[in-house]
Specification:
single chain; 382 residues; four-stranded mixed sheet; 11 helices; 10 strands; binds flavin-adenine dinucleotide
Length: 382
């Protein structure tokens, strides 16, 4: 059975994408096929994506999709980020996708959106070129979903902030060069006014990588616990307004949620494609699995849901809905795809096994489903 019979692997045309988005899609897809897929199993073993690969992504323009041309960006819109995330999601290596997307869509956006002209001129060209890799450090051992309750503090002393505290689950945390760190600069103020964002460069005395974390999935993405011990950060490394960090984080979460939703839908499309390939050749009880109505109907329904998820991503009106829906759906897709691969789906040698492990975090990271649904519920009430 031909894969294109179902709509899942090949996306339906969307009115939201223009020619430049399709050009970008083809470019990312080519890069993924030739420069990611053949090598990324080794990166899963190493626990990180090699720097030369990230530099290559920078050269190809993947890290500057929405950024100003003056720093080397291409000034596309949010749909450009959606295309990048979806196509990296289709790589089948969630760890590779998230390494790139945290850098370009979740961490460096703090500099692009809130940095001063000097900060942007100093950091953005290298960020976009992939010479400087960024991480976003918000979560702490005792505060994840509840951002306001972070405890890392930054005390002003002369022309520095002295940072103390710990950060947990930080993507790119081991190998990043530049960290956008949330810290309380006014712990006595109202929680929403108490947080500021600081740029902390790798090598700043007092910034320690406490440990590299070993994860269930996303194994080619490096994740760290960080410690700040009297870490002295120059006052001109404050990003945006002092006390404006909470709003900056919330604003950038919008993009983060959209991008994670798009990444999840890329993964779901690819998983359905792989599973269709499998069930159309695997035989049991005298026919292919695809010829069993229950199998093809389940895949057809999931394909329909993934298309619905993609359309939701494309609208971008309600990003909490996108995040909740797509990140639960990708796990439903993975469950069915592992199921239809049978025993092979449980073996480390099969792609779908990795994809199912990688997808699990989608409903937790970047805003847990329950937290997203609270956001949606708030807007349901009139
Ligand atoms: C692989 C990975 C990479 C990450 N990368 C980064 C990063 O780069 N930077 C960063 O700052 N953080 C990062 N995180 C942290 C991530 O954003 C948090 O894990 C997430 O926000 C959830 O926080 P938590 O783990 O502390 O869970 P908690 O906040 O302790 O919540 C635990 C669970 O409780 C439930 N829950 C929470 N709140 C509610 C509620 N209001 N109502 C109902 N149920 C609720 C949810 O099911 C949730 O999963 C990463 C996490 C992982 C696992």
């Amino acid at each position: 059975m031909n894969r294109t019979v179902t709509s899942a692997p090949e996306s339906l045309p969307s009115p939201y994408f223009r020619e430049e988005h399709e050009l970008l899609r083809r470019q990312v897809r080519r890069f993924v096929e030739t420069e990611v897929k053949p090598f990324a199993s080794a990166w899963e073993e190493q626990g990180c994506v090699p720097r030369e690969v990230l530099r290559r992504m920078g050269e190809l323009g993947f890290f500057g999709i929405r950024y100003p041309a003056q720093y080397g960006g291409s000034e596309l819109d949010a749909m450009g980020s959606v295309v990048l995330a979806e196509e990296l999601g289709r790589s089948t290596f969630g760890g590779v996708a998230v390494t790139a997307l945290v850098h370009s869509e979740m961490a460096s956006v703090h500099i692009a959106n809130f940095g001063s002209a000097e900060q942007k001129a100093r950091f953005m060209p290298d960020v976009i070129a992939g010479r400087t890799i960024t991480a976003l450090a918000v979560t702490e051992p005792d505060a994840g979903s509840d951002v306001k309750s972070i405890r890392t503090n930054a005390r002003r002393e002369g022309d520095s902030f002295v940072v103390n505290g710990a950060k947990m689950f930080i993507t790119n945390g081991v190998y990043a060069d530049l960290y956008c760190v949330a810290a309380k600069t006014a712990p006595e103020s109202r929680a929403s006014q108490s947080i500021s964002m600081l740029l902390v460069e790798k090598g700043t005395p007092g910034l320690k990588i406490s440990r590299a974390l070993d994860k269930h999935g996303w194994r080619s993405s490096d994740t760290a616990e960080l410690a700040f011990e009297d870490c002295r950060v120059p006052a001109d490394h404050l990003l945006g307004r002092e006390g404006g960090g909470f709003y900056a984080i919330m604003r950038n979460f919008q993009n983060e949620r959209l991008v994670l939703g798009a990444m999840a839908m890329g993964e779901a499309q690819e998983a359905l494609g792989l599973t269709l390939d499998y069930v159309t050749t695997r035989k049991a009880f005298g026919s292919t699995l695809y010829e069993k109505q229950v199998v093809r109907q389940r895949l057809a329904m999931l394909a329909a849901q993934v298309e619905a998820g993609r359309q939701l991503v494309d609208c971008t009106r309600e990003v909490s809905m996108v995040k909740a829906y797509c990140c639960e759906l990708v796990n439903e897709v993975m469950y069915a795809c592992v199921q239809f691969h049978g025993g092979m789906g449980y073996m480390r040698e099969s792609t779908i096994e990795r994809m199912a492990r990688d997808a699990r975090v989608h409903s937790i990271g970047g805003g847990a489903t329950e937290v997203m649904l609270e956001e949606v519920a708030k807007r349901l009430r009139r």
